[in-house]
Amino acid sequence: MKKPLLGVMAATLLGAASALVGAAPAQAATAAVTVNFAGTVALSDCSGSVVRMPNSQATDPALVLTNGHCLETGMPGPGEVIVDQPSNRSFTLLSASGGRLGTLRAGKVAYATMTDTDVTLYQLSTSYASIKSRYGISPLTISPNHPVAGTSIKVVSGYWKTTYSCSIDGFVNQLDEGDWVWKDSVRYTSTCNTIGGTSGSPVIDTSTGLLVAVNNTGNEDGETCTVNNPCEVDANGHVTVHQGTNYAEETYLLTRCFAAGNKLDLTLAGCTLPRP
Predict the structure, then answer these.
(1) Whole-number mean pLDDT of the chain?
(2) Which stretches does DSSP call E strand in the chain?
């Protein structure tokens, strides 16, 4: 887990191109887009980003995406799912160059879990239109499609104001770390050497500008399946360890669980996120 050391547990699980509100950006598949810090946020201990679903509208309450293990009330336990939990957490909104623009504040935790995936989605007390009007910042659009191996990506950390560039090396059937299990995780190529504080960073497809994953962990010491040392488990149960390799969790599943108005609905057809 790429999070700074806090309290008694050193939970170092592994925080951007902006998209127009109301429509996903139309980009040529062969032309790289500019990826910068616009739309990213810094948390007290993690990174994150202001995000929209493909069907989100300008008047909808804005959402901030980070990791489940970055939840301010503590890491959700295995099997635990949190929905509609009050929150007043603050986020520092960054400009394209990484400068501080202002503070956004959550109204609630819309969804958080560390089961199958590692995500927290905060609902803010303001709309995308209000953020755009005040700060000139548009949200990142979450891709509705499964990411593709070989895709060129950037991991953009609002906490460190640092960008990492690499490609998607492939996908992990099951990633085990401590008591947690994540499915179909993204494995980076070696140049995305993310560190503590990059937890929750958006992972951006550089050809489309779409958000395809959320950065979350890496094997630091070569240990097997321990905290900060995830292991890969294939479909036959074979365990492998890749010291120095870092990972992210896919986000396309989120787009299938939000109805009009950015309302979480875990009963929607196609929504496979864990339920409370």
Answers:
(1) 92
(2) 40-42, 47-52, 61-66, 81-86, 90-94, 100-113, 119-127, 140-141, 152-157, 162-177, 180-188, 202-205, 211-218, 231-233, 239-240, 246-250, 258-259, 263-264
